[in-house]
């Protein structure tokens, strides 16, 4: 009888041990920490700290900081368009400046309508019988007529006249023939031309050129 009691007590203690272990594993969160420590079974539950750990704060700040992303974007190199090197075939050859020949005299300028010198007189004045008469072109002479007579120039030709004696000039039209004095190249001025040149006496020297 004395031997059975210890065995029964051991069996009861073992049953209680397994029961407590099972309850601890199932309801470990509800069993006080001191009980689990005393019994030596189950999980040891530790309470959370009141404030976050400093390392966790740094991690949270680092996750919210966008400066690292901006720095990464700035580091990205800027792509620049590069032109291909110019080849010899594409290069435009420089044209050397033309060198002026040395000791070359400029060509003289040839005037298209050079001035010529001849003699002139007046007609169709008062009392000579030609005033108020028709010319070879059909025009009637008056005291203001700007016509001249010439032996060979075509009728209707315009000439520019200059009188060196007076320094005056004018433009007249060939509308008659003459003068018949034996000279090959001379003019006979009507009264309008005489007044424009400022000379109405006898024969005098004039210069003229054809107006094209």
Can you walk me through this structure?
The relative contact order is 0.12. The chain has 5 helices and 6 strands, in the order ααααβββββαβ. The longest helix has 23 residues. A hairpin with a 4-residue loop joins β3 and β4. The termini are far apart. The chain has a 6-stranded mixed β-barrel with strand order 1-5-2-4-3-6. About 9% of the residues have low confidence. Among the domains are: 36 residues; 95 residues, RlpA-like domain (Barwin-like endoglucanases, Beta Barrel), CATH 2.40.40. It is rod-shaped. With 212 residues, it is of the alpha/beta class.
SSE order and pairing:
Blueprint: H1 4-26, H2 33-39, H3 54-64, H4 67-75, E1 116-122, E2 147-149, E3 158-163, E4 168-176, E5 186-189, H5 191-197, E6 204-210
Parallel strand pairs: 1-5, 2-4
Antiparallel strand pairs: 1-6, 2-5, 3-4, 3-6
